[in-house]
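Many introductory courses stop at the sequence. We go one step further.
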Amino acid sequence: MEIEILACVPKEIREILKCGMTGEVIMVNSSGIYLRFEEQIVFLCDITWGLVPIGIAVDGFKKMAKQLCLEEGQSVTFRDNTLIFPKGTVQLQMEEIIPEKECLRQPEKRYIKQAAMEVAALQKERGISMLVEPLVLGKKTNTVIQLNPYCAKAYPYLVKLMNALSHAEGEISYCVDKMLGLGTGLTPSADDVMLGMLYVFRKFPQKYSQSVCSFKENILELCDSHTNQVSSAYLKAIIQGAYFERMEQVWNGLCGMEPLDISKLTQVGSNSGTEMLLGMLVALRICGYDVSA
């Protein structure tokens, strides 16, 4: 069986996938299919998700997956823009990707506060997104840190990390060591928060450069040993400049370039997208956007 399908493939993935490269299916879930080619993780997902950092977004993903009966452990080969599986092949018709544009506008406090309040209003009892109340909105911690053990564990490390990044102090390595892999799910909660932070720091290359560089270096050094391979792949991709369409849409909303719609991110996973947004808001506070008053 041969399927011809439109696909959006980031240049980073195009550059990694070489003709004749062989890999395997490592995970199949409702969001998509994870493939591993040598040390690179690739995520096959539906095009409605937009561009994701390690993803190949395909049109008609569900139909494709059903026809090919994709399962964990199956082999896959990439050759001539084609993914070759045991029960069929997928010919990728590459679509041109618009690169990330430089934003000429700055985030606005009213939109940052709006996003923070909307995250808090979700009242998620799992994950650590409710830490938005003390970390961004400046509310008391008592109720939130008692919400679940991950909130209680993550809170002191996030406070230390925020202080360290703001003042270029030496606790960055300690905090990264403690936070990587903290939480449940395919991408642990604290990893998602740090991913959102990293994305925002890319927007301010001249601010806190020394501490942010240390933050990135420590994540790169520790992520393979401290968290799972999927989460590690996402963190590395963001550090290396990969585009994340839904996060970019929220960023544009925070800058007033388009209507702010946090659901662009909060719909990602059960908690992951919301925690990524928490990371974005935390990074903005570190960069001087304090909406806690």
